[in-house]
Specification:
This protein has 221 residues and is an alpha+beta fold. The protein is 33% helix and 22% strand. Strands 5-6-7-8-9 form a five-stranded mixed β-sheet, with helices on one face. A four-stranded antiparallel β-sheet has the order 1-2-4-3, covered by helices on one side.
Amino acid sequence: MAGKDLLEKGAVVQRDKETYAIAPHLPGGVVSSDTLRKLADVADQYGAQAIKVTGAQRIAIVGIKEEDIDHAWKDLDMKPGAAIGLCVRSVKICPGTTFCKRGRQDSLKVGLKLDELYHGMQLPNKLKIGVSGCPNSCADNHFRDIGIMGMPNGFKIQVGGKGGIKPRIADLLMENVSEEDVFPVVDKIIKVYAENAKKHERLGAYIDRISLEEFKKQIEE
């Protein structure tokens, strides 16, 4: 039935309410030339209206007919990105010390590991993670549910950021966190959120409800 998102197929209905966009999962936006060719071939084969780079560092094939969605995914042979649903939507990652001259920490390594661990995990609401390698914050860590920012002496970890109608700047949770310690801290944040937040409550709203001080206590327990 056209006119609604097809969550199980990773398809998002478009403005015409007849065609769909599909976006394969591209961890950190890192993509090979072979994958780019495959995306272009599928877009051509199924008469896509556009190929769009998204804010979640994916490449969406826009304007696919409903009857072509399954065939397009089969030809792509790739996993869908978690573009819709109550889950970990995306881990946005800057180039970090892997490529960028300004990088202070290895954001790409950290972000790809977090993507591997959490992408698509079901939660009370959508949750977005941003990992930046320096204070330029190219991964928008200040406006992510979990923001991780590289500094000279480790990472700053921020929580509760978001965009939307009522944007919220993330709160500072802790700083000078080593690369290896980022992972248990993030895991604790996600577990506390998963076990205590109300359905449809974003992490920032949960923090506002219980207070940042109480949230920090829950993380330390």
